[in-house]
Amino acid sequence: MLLTKKSPSILRDVATGRPTTEASSRFVQSLSRGLSNALPTMDRRLFLRRSGLGIGVGLAATQLSLVKKAQAATPGEVTSTRNIQVKRTVCTHCSVGCAVDAVVENGIWVRQNPVFDSPINLGAHCAKGAALREHGHGEHRLRYPMKLINGKYERISWETALSEISSRMLDLRKASGPDSVYIVGSSKHNNEQSYLLRKWASFWGSNNCDHQARICHSTTVAGVANTWGYGAMTNSFNDMQNSKCALYIGSNAAEAHPVSMLHMLHSKETGCKMIVVDPRFTRTAAKADEYIRLRSGSDIPFLFGMLYHIFKNGWEDKKYINDRVYGMDKIKAEVLAKWTPDKVEEACGVPEARVYMAAEMMAKNRPSTVVWCMGQTQHTTGNAIVRASCILQLALGNIGVSGGGTNIFRGHDNVQGATDVGPNPDSLPGYYGLAEGSWKHFSKAWGVDFEWLKGRYASPAMMSKPGITVSRWIDGVLEKNEFIDQDSNLRGVFFWGHSPNSQTRGLEMKRAMDKLDLLVVVDPYPSATASMAAMPGKPEDLNPNRAVYLLPAATQFETSGSVTASNRSLQWREKVIEPLWESRTDHMIMYQLAEKLGFAKELVKNVKMQKVKGMDEPVPEDILREINKSCWSIGYTGQSPERLKAHMRSMHLFDVKTLRSKGGKDKLSGYDTTGDYFGLPWPCYGTPELKHPGTPNLYDTSRHVMDGGGNFRANFGVEKDGVNLLAEDGSHSKGADITTGYPEFDHLLMKKLGWWNELTDSEKALADGKNWKTDNSGGIQRVVMQNHGCYPFGNAKARAVVWNFPDAIPQHREPLYGNRPDMIAKYPTHEDKKTFWRLPTLYKSLQDKNVADKVHEKFPFVMTSGRLVEYEGGGEETRSNPWLAELQQEMFIEINPKSAAEKGIRNGDRAWVSTPTGARLNVQAMVTERVGPDTVFMPFHFSGHWQGADMLAYYPKGAAPLVRGEAINTGTTYGYDAVTMMQETKTSVCNFEKA
Amino acid sequence: MARMKFVCDAERCIECNGCVTACKNEHEVPWGVNRRRVVTLNDGVAGEKSISVACMHCSDAPCMAVCPVNCFYRTDEGVVLHDKDICIGCGYCSYACPFGAPQFPSTGTFGVRGKMDKCTFCAGGPEANGSEEEFEKYGRNRLAEGKLPICAEMCSTKALLGGDGDVIADIFRQRVVQRGKGAEVWGWGTAYGSKQAGQPPQGAKS
Amino acid sequence: QAPAAPSTPAAPLATTIGGIQSQSIYQVRPDASQEPGYANQTNAERHKVQPGNNAPIWRQEGGGITGLSSLPVSQAPEAGNLIQRFVQYPGSRLTNAGSAWREVRNQWLIPYGSALLGITVLALAIFFFSRGTIMTHGKDTGRKIERFTPFERAAHWSNAIAFLALALSGIFMAFGKFFLLPILGGAVFGWITWLLKTMHNFAGPVFAVSLVIVFVTFVRDNIPEKADLNWLLKGGGMFGGEEPASQRFNAGEKIVFWSGVTFLGLVVISSGFVLDKILPFLVYERATMQIANMIHLIATVLMMCMFTAHIYLGTIGMQGAYKGMRSGYVDETWAKEHHATWFDDVKAGRIPAQRSKLPSEKTAAVPLKSSPQA
Ligand SMILES: Nc1nc2c(c(=O)[nH]1)N[C@H]1C(S)=C(S)[C@@H](COP(=O)(O)OP(=O)(O)OC[C@H]3O[C@@H](n4cnc5c(=O)[nH]c(N)nc54)[C@H](O)[C@@H]3O)O[C@H]1N2
Ligand SMILES: Nc1nc2c(c(=O)[nH]1)N[C@H]1C(S)=C(S)[C@@H](COP(=O)(O)OP(=O)(O)OC[C@H]3O[C@@H](n4cnc5c(=O)[nH]c(N)nc54)[C@H](O)[C@@H]3O)O[C@H]1N2
Ligand code: HEM
Ligand code: HEM
Ligand code: SF4
Ligand code: SF4
Ligand code: SF4
Ligand code: SF4
Ligand code: SF4
Ligand SMILES: [Mo]
Questions:
Q1: Across chain C, what does the average pLDDT equal?
Q2: Is the peptide bond before A367 cis (omega within 30 degrees of 0)?
Q3: Per the database record, which ranges form the 4Fe-4S Mo/W bis-MGD-type domain (chain A) (predicted)?
């Protein structure tokens, strides 16, 4: 009895006469555009035609009729009773920036559709992106404000919460000054919220704010910006389709940026070679042509080992180096003298032949690109490692070249944006430093009096002093007061979209949490912090006056705003649903707290209010406009909300390989996208009216600046010790009027060049006395670019030698906790620092002590950590999502079979992992060749177990995630980058035994 | 008439589980039921390959052959579906299926399993196309909506192809030619020993 | 060596596409297949000489294709298995276990099992129509011997009822779709079968328990004796002649007891327990289930055949037997004719005629009263 019920005749019957809803016809439009021809994959339309289904046949017209709520579908009902909308948003789980169409029916997120039109992801998603809709349910979220009372979280009203928090803040301010409160901001906030939070912190009167970028790519940002101008991914995922060779060193893109692999694997099929250098044989390595295992933390020896062969064989791009690079001669001398193959092998464990192979592949298959991520950044030497990678690319002439570049894969969905315009302790939005000039620039942009702003701070000195970093807030609490470079210790902390288990030294964090007067967690999933705070610690640490509040924040699907993907493209998220339960958006919370703290008016001077759930909320578009009007330095000025929204609606117009619009207007607004690059990747200089197309690949001299071309930035003067720092003659972006190197533009240079009069009178009024970054008219940028084809920030050389860094030439230094005292003797770390980001910071003394204490004997295994594809960050969000949680239910440790055998551990056994901090973690053993015998790896996404005990009892009721496990950062050790205070999470030590 | 097939390109699959959660999301599949899963071979060593597997909608389906109540049926597109109203939850299909596709909501004692659930090729079940009953029991009926399986549509690397066997074979062939090597498509033939797997699974040593 | 070919000729093909050299051509060694040990390379080794040639993976026929899945083993023990391992069950080809099991079940057990059952029923029918019920020759004496105590009867009947339920539901599961489905239609058949199957799952353990009791109760009188040989040699008197003398149970019954009740019963129960997933120490992988099913099916079919005969004899096949099991009492004539030795023992007082305690000693007549008049 074989049924054939689903015959096409039935399909046609159902289809006939069915009216098409407006929303669905829009989707059908998007259907009609299949996957790009560039990717040999299926085109749905063609596919359907060939498969005999045909487009528009069957229920195609009603694919939005949500089966879930559908009555036995009779035509007519589809349109009459249902309110179906499609909202375009962007995945919040990593920086790839995959677009998602959320289907919302009567305010409920009922379905998730792939956006084939997105040039970034072509409809593709990894596990996290494909499971996004769960956010619309949020069953494990915090539902209302709570307060810790007698060890239990109890529900309170928003009003109570906001008044109590603000009055406690004001008390702290009175007693200990504004710097006693620390704000851990978030890279999960959209640009508008991050920007507003930096403003909020400033109006509160402190630079003590930070966010995930510190513990993510801070070393990249600092190292790379100091090399050539901007500390960001130079090219894009898409552009990797133009590469002929890709070196992944310290990136596990297959798990951390899965959809980027769509482009890479395609590229590979058209001939690109792929090399992976990693202490682990990762899922990315499994896809590579060559895999090279190196010792964790030894990237500099490896990279310089490659350079050794490049120089030896004359593979470097000599003309490029001459024209565009400063200091390569010094590097060459150092490399040839110091990094001979034997030294390289000794330091990183890679034999000469393998290093040579990698060098040759990269040199002979140009343009070649380097990809890195946390494997390079999260080290005490992170700043130097990333610069070594830059130097490699400069030597090969790969920067500013399509298919080349340093493709630095960023982390959180908006870590790029939050770094660009968000709560950084050492800069204002747009990387404006903390100097008075910047403050004045922003006072103007914010429409507040500079003197008032100054008065908010403890002192002018504190106003220009970078704040404490998120990696060290615990020391801001625990350090002896006399050693810290601010009046008071930290007494109040906001966790505003950040997990606790992502920072190292968990045992000490627990103590710090207990010592606080005020802990506020603003998060849709605040429970990791909440449980850690509620868990009883040492009685002597507990501050009897401590107050802990949990505020339910809305997710990014419950608000709108822009988000900057790794490739610097901005995308606009539409609001999918209203904030669930009692949650409120972050910018609403900022505004409401500001009301209580007395600076609400100032906070939203340029911003209109809209009603959300009957309450005032600042309008995101207006905040973006304020960003557009102030962040000239990085070209966040051209991305008006209108342009971004037009791009989102017209994704199909953009080419997958170049990201450039093939021409065409946005139907709704009539905006002509012709020439634009998708998402107007910053810098998108000038006002929106200038219509700069955005910059797909940074520093690309083969294009005109108005086509997204450019050159290296003049940011470090015009000469150093008599050596020219500007680009050599003839090296400039295409069509530039100035064919030599030139400095950055200001009103004086404009006048000198006789270009001043090309500014309009109103522009002149604003631009006088200003430079390209502070001219609020945008006139200088306009004239320089549009009229003269020049780059506002000048045309200089990239610096292979960064003289203002601790190691002008990148030096290999061993980590503070290592298992190789012999190597520590040869490559010791830095000297201790007395005040560094307001705190004393240990290097040499601790490293020496560790060697003296023979830590390497007690803890002989290198402990490294990283990501699993299913979970994100601290993981509370993703571990609360059943579709993801089911896929990874156990915290585990990867152990090589050899070391496992020595310890008598078999696959699946429980193991105790101990670290030098005294922490003991109970985890499952995963015996695998993935790691070498002297290395172990653990994912860092777990929390909820504390040294073997389940913390379930300490969670706010109903808000515990589905899967809990031991957090590796409970056991991670001390160690910070010598420039940015990046925490060392990639190279530490541990020991383990069978449990 | 088109014959619907899946093919997973092991050269592309990165074990990101996107296909798995896409399926869960689209059909609201409960915890414990995995219509699709990803298997990694040679995990952690050179030659590691991942393959996403669900029901392969076999031509001569073992599940269908052993079902005591004949609740399986095949659509004109070659999709193997079943009727949960008839299913007795005996588990035989899962013993017979080479791929472990059939799933059961519970693994209770006394062999009580509940009604079998498996990948429907996003084609629903015997109920009226697009009806609520169909959704409750089988998830969405994308084929009837003129769409292809969500798992393949969302696959992060387009490793997973689902659709008309001829078309996906074409797509795949194109990739193989571009790669210039005889990469094996992992698909239906592998289990049954047909030449589709690139090379026959038995006897021959290559 | 021949099948290696597909991976090598690809090289010239690819170079023609836009002159793009793809990775494999860059490194593939076309002659790699000539190397010793090529055929036995692991996928990792193969990748070094021929990247992208995954043939070794697909060729793990012996072990099936098993890898790693992140799903916990406790929840999904076989999630890491891509294709069931290749096996050759008796009667199947060498193919993946699922298909092999299907072949055995569908090509052997179901058709031949049903045939056997059919033949048994047919044979009994023929026997019945040609020979009729075996009647008691003499006249009933009216004197009753208690053949089965209430306890024995309770044990027997609960066992018998469970068996009937199991057999009925088992038949639905195994053979129903061939003769009932077309009659009842999918929905009704499915619904009934679901009901029966669920009942089967629960009746199984009941059967198991009662079978143990039955065994214990009846084992004493089923110990084979010399006389049984005689009984057997004479064919139990089935084919003419007097029924040879037997003890309480004759050799035929003893055979049923040992081979049917005990041996097949054990096999059926243990395989049934596996299918029921109630043995705590087992991991219920598909292979386990397949084997258990095949054993169960074979044993149950044999058991059903055997007990069809038993039931035949216990009902229409032999006059008086059924009543003996229903009421517990048989007439002396019946006892003398069918179990002469036992009758002698009762008469001699070696076995009491009344073994169970009567509900109340005041009326010894109770058994007489309730005893059926034959
Ligand atoms: N699924 C998922 N995706 C994510 C995230 C997530 O949490 N989950 N987070 C996002 C964020 S915030 C970020 S920053 C990115 C991070 O993305 P990645 O940096 O790619 O991910 P990690 O796993 O942290 O580390 C990458 C690799 O570095 C290796 N490594 C360790 N030590 C060294 C070393 O000394 N040298 C070299 N060369 N390699 C080393 C590790 O073995 C690991 O394989 O991912 C983003 N995407
Ligand atoms: N050992 C080890 N430690 C590491 C790393 C490592 O590789 N190894 N990686 C480091 C890196 S690169 C990073 S980026 C960090 C990541 O670590 P975190 O960023 O701390 O981890 P997440 O859990 O992603 O934290 C984001 C929080 O923001 C919340 N959130 C999401 N959306 C919103 C919103 O709209 N508003 C608000 N208010 N909250 C929101 C989420 O619920 C979540 O609690 O971890 C670092 N720690
Ligand atoms: C002696 C009487 C029994 C008979 C005649 C019998 C018969 C059958 C038959 C014919 C099948 C179907 C096999 C197939 O279609 O392949 C079956 C299945 C099964 N039997 Fe029995 N069986 C008996 C006893 C038991 C016992 C004692 C148990 C458990 C303790 C049991 C548990 C099962 C189970 C679990 C199945 C699998 C079907 C399912 O789970 O739905 N059976 N039986
Ligand atoms: C409807 C089904 C059945 C009927 C009508 C039936 C009938 C009978 C009858 C009449 C007797 C008495 C024979 C005598 O007096 O010697 C008997 C004995 C017996 N029956 Fe059944 N029976 C049935 C099912 C079963 C089943 C399923 C089993 C066990 C699996 C079983 C086990 C026995 C045993 C053990 C004896 C005692 C004889 C011996 O031990 O050899 N019967 N049955
Ligand atoms: S997590 Fe990253 S790769 Fe995955 S869907 Fe989201 S944005 Fe895309
Ligand atoms: S894969 Fe399994 S469930 Fe699917 S049709 Fe084949 S045998 Fe049946
Ligand atoms: S579980 Fe259901 S579908 Fe599978 S064989 Fe049994 S009755 Fe058929
Ligand atoms: S085809 Fe549909 S039902 Fe089958 S695995 Fe894919 S998403 Fe799930
Ligand atoms: S989504 Fe694609 S790449 Fe990811 S696991 Fe599934 S098949 Fe593989
Ligand atoms: Mo990050």
A1: 80
A2: yes
A3: 84-140
Token digits of residue C204: 């199984």
Q: Do B40 and C67 touch (CB under 8 A)?
A: yes
Between CA B29 and CA B47 the distance in angstroms is: 32
B-facing residues of C in 261-280 (CB < 8 A) are 275-278
Of B37, B80, B87, B117, which is best to mutate to test ligand 6, by the most ligand atoms within 8 angstroms of its C-beta?
B80
Strand partners, C96: C86
Q: Which residues, in sequence order, are CB contacts of A195 under 8 Å at separation 6+?
A: A421, A422, A429, A623, A626, A627
Tell me the C-alpha distance between A853 and A241, whole Å.
51
Short-list A117, A119, A60, A111, CA closest to A86: A111
> Taking each helix axis from N to C terminus, what angle separates C150-179 and C110-131, rounded to the nearest 10 degrees?
120
Convert the pLDDT of each residue in B64-97 to its tens digit. 999 999 999 998 888 999 999 999 999 999 999 9
CB atoms within 10 A of CB A539: 7
- Measured CA angle at A410 (ends A404, A415), to 5 deg: 140
Whether C220 contacts C201, CB under 8 Å:
no
Q: Is B79 on the interface with A (CB under 8 A)?
A: yes
Distances (CA, A) of A866 to A127, A372, A378, A965, B111: 17, 13, 10, 15, 41
Q: Which amino acid is at C330?
A: V
Residues 6+ apart with CB under 8 A from A463: A207, A434, A439, A454, A457
Instruction: Give ipTM to 2 decimals.
Output: 0.88
Q: How far apart are CA A227 and CA A585, in angstroms?
A: 38
Residues of chain A with pLDDT under 70: 1-82
Q: How far apart are CA A239 and CA A226, in angstroms?
A: 24
pLDDT at A285: 94
List C residues 196-215 in contact with A (Cβ-Cβ < 8 A): none
Q: pLDDT tens, position by position, for chain B (206 residues)?
A: 567 888 888 888 999 999 999 999 999 999 989 999 999 988 998 888 899 999 988 888 899 999 999 999 998 888 999 999 999 999 999 999 988 999 998 765 666 778 999 999 999 999 888 888 889 899 999 888 888 899 999 999 988 888 887 777 777 777 766 665 544 445 444 445 443 333 333 323 33
Which residue bears the tokens 């994100």?
A872
Task: Show the domains of chain A with their CATH numbers.
Answer: 146-213+415-624 (3.40.50.740), 218-409 (3.40.228.10), 632-639+679-796 (no CATH), 821-994 (2.40.40.20)
CA end-to-end span of chain A, whole Å?
56
Per-residue burial over A965-989, b if 16 or more Cβ lie within 10 Å, else e, is: bbbbbbbbbbbbbbbbbbbbbbbbb
Distance CA C8, CA C22 (A): 13
Chain B: residue whose CA lies nearest to A31: B147
What domains can you pick out in chain B, each with its CATH number?
A: 4-179 (3.30.70.20)
For residue C108, the distance in angstroms to the closest alpha carbon of chain B comes to 13
Locate the chain A residue with the closest alpha carbon to C51: A289
Q: Is the dihedral of CA A101, A103, A104, A108 positive or negative?
A: negative
> What's the DSSP call for residue C84?
P
How many angstroms separate the most distant Cα atoms in chain C? 110
Q: What amino acid occupies position B19?
A: C
The pair of three-digit structure tokens given for residue A583, joined into one six-digit string: 């949650």
**DSSP letters spanning A960-990:** --S--EE-GGGT----B-TTT--B--SSEEE
Whether A491 and A518 have beta carbons less than 8 Å apart is answered as yes
User: What is the distance between the alpha carbons of residues A632 and A775, in angstroms, rounded to a whole number?
Assistant: 8
* pLDDT, tens digit, 9 for 90 and up, residues A954-993: 999 989 999 999 999 999 999 999 999 999 999 999 999 9
How much is the pLDDT for A660?
Answer: 95
